[in-house]
Amino acid sequence: MSAPDLHAEHMTLNMGPSHPATHGTVKFLIELDGETIVDLEVQVGYLHRGFEKECESGSWYQCIPYTDRLNYNSAVLSNLGFCMAVEKLLEIETPERCQWLRVLAGELSRVGDHLTRCGAACLELQAMTPFLYGIEARELVWDLLEALTGARVTSNYVRIGGVRHALPESFAALAKESLPKIRRLLADFEAVVTQNRIFVDRLRDIGIVSKEDCIRYAVTGPVLRAAGVPLDLRKDEPYLVYDQLDFDVPVGTVGDNYDRYLVCVAEMHQSLRIVEQCIHRLGALGAGPVDVDDPHVRWPAKDGVFNRMEEMIQQFKNVTEGPKVPAGEGYLAIESANGELGFYLVSDGSQHPVKVRCRPPSFLNVQPLPLMVRGAMLADLIPTFDFLNMIGGECDR
Amino acid sequence: MEDHGSPLLRRLLDAHREATLATHADFGDATARVAPGQLIQVMTFLRDEPALAFDMLIDLTCVDYLGREPRFEMVYHLYSVTRNHRLRIKAGVSEESATIGSVTGLWAAADWMEREVFDLYGIVFENHPDLRRILLDEGFEGHPLRKDYPKTRRQPLIDRRSSDA
Q: A216-272: per-residue pLDDT in tens?
């Protein structure tokens, strides 16, 4: 007997905004026919805290901690996008050492972000063990980030015209110890998951989105690459020192959840390769300045601030006012863990931004979710949503 | 009107010179300000012209220049996946009308981004399929990203609804 003979009617189900199976504060309004999703509406905005309004009322420097809290899984990348956009308006070029440090911190963040995505997706599919492998690996990544930036999550590391700290002397040794451990945990993770019958059955051919639909909806990052479009700004519009690095851009074929998983895992391996190249290069570069030599932009070194009048005044001016950014508008995009993270800035020449627009990859990647799950089972919504990796802080700003 | 050495602006000017009001390429970003009445026409050209092929609307936002006329400026960032180039299109919106045509018919991505601009700036998009607030509650009063909206303004508490639909 088919469903219409039962005089069944569609049921509307509210899922969220705080649901144990979704990491992220978001509400789904689901129209169900039995267990099949007929239609879905995604309601976002629960974590909106006025990022742009806050940025407009402060100085350029005061925006940086807010960017940490956009995508808190890879805070360095959000810092980086904003600071590079401001540098574009200031027309300053950062020293080579600083660029390698930025890439190093950024790629470590990307690994942490992808580990969270894949680990949490496993957890939400009731697989506890791979989640713990992933989190253990992320701890090691965060230990490295802590050694480099001084903080594990919201690091506030990238500054306008430079980075906060130089590479600590012990870092290369710590990395040499940690990276094989991270790789081993990643191998364990893959051994449990990649060929696992239950996992593959839950992911393969679920949540398919074609490359045409991805482009129509401006979907970027691993979701777009899983659909077969090799778009990666690190390759297509190389910034920092990415043109000197050896890495590949993994792509998928059909654009289902399994492809997204494979692309994320492959990207982690590529990022670890980049991390090694950065450490090697930074060792060859040796010690030296990690920010631009411009007292109007960069904060002076602390020993100077405490012992010399000139530096103390510079510090005071920079803290209370910050740099004046020349009037104009500029857009700068980087490849964050979720896709194109862009900042469109407008300055009127003063210390306060007129406009700080963040182009959030999460927001645009979640938009075509109804397209991906229409006709699928309710339970398939969970992994599909997980592999989009919507980060509430970034989506809702 | 100059093309500032940008082949993209050159093509735009060749096809829509009278619709283009200003151009610049500051900081390397090719930018054109177009007449709001001809926005859809220009955007359709930019998307469908094979040499330009702007298949992705990468970003859409608005800026409030309080005290200037027109007060608002819509900003569209276009990207071509096939040709790997970018263009910024802007269009002024006056305070009285606060209305502009929707580009949802050209790029599906515009749906949520236009809802966001409607929500935070109060710009109405003609022919948008589902124009309502997206980030804020429907009971929110005013549009917080307008420059005359004070940061400290309080909002009424959200009503308890009879059904949570």
A: 999 999 999 999 999 999 988 899 899 999 999 999 998 899 999 999 999 999 999
The CATH H-level superfamily of B7-126 is NADH:ubiquinone oxidoreductase Nqo5 subunit (3.30.460.80)
Position B100, amino acid: I
Q: What is the mean pLDDT of residues B101-120?
A: 93
Domains defined for chain A, CATH in brackets: 53-364+378-396 (1.10.645.10)
**Can you say whether residue B143 is alpha, beta or left, with left for phi > 0 and alpha for psi between -120 and 50 degrees?**
beta
pTM: 0.89
ipTM given for this complex: 0.89
| b/e B101-126 (16+ beta carbons within 10 angstroms → b) | bbbbebbbbbbbbbbbbbbbbbbebe
- Identify the pLDDT of residue A1: 46
Q: Which of A136, A134, A163, A161 is nearest to A76 (CA)?
A: A163
B109·A50 Cβ contact <8 A: no
> Does A5 score more than 90 pLDDT?
no
Query: How large a percentage of chain A has pLDDT more than 90?
Result: 44
Residue A343 gets which letter from DSSP?
E
Q: Does B35 touch chain A (CB under 8 A)?
A: no
> How much is the average pLDDT of A108-122?
91
Averaged pLDDT, A35-56:
90
Distance from CA of A341 to the nearest CA of B (A): 10
| Distance of residue B98 Cα from the nearest chain A Cα, in angstroms | 19
B81–A231 C-beta distance less than 8 A: yes
Spell out which residues of chain B touch residue A344, defining contact as CB-CB under 8 Å: 59, 61, 75, 77
Distance from CA of A175 to the nearest CA of B (A): 36
Q: What are the tokens at B22?
A: 């200003």
Instruction: Say yes or no to pLDDT of A16 above 80.
Output: no
Q: A107 with A275: CB under 8 angstroms?
A: yes
Tell me whether B31 touches chain A (CB under 8 Å). yes
Inter-chain residue contact A237 with B111, CB threshold 8 Å:
no
**A329: which chain B residues are within 8 Å (Cβ-Cβ)?**
26, 29, 31, 75
Chain A: nearest CA to B57, how far in angstroms? 6
Q: Give A-chain residues touching B26 at CB under 8 angstroms.
A: 328-330
Chain B, residues 113-142, CB within 8 A of chain A, namely: 113, 116, 120, 133-137
Could you tell me the CA-to-CA distances from B147 to A198, B55, B68 in Å, in that order?
53, 33, 12
- Look at residue A7 in the predicted model and tell me its pLDDT: 67
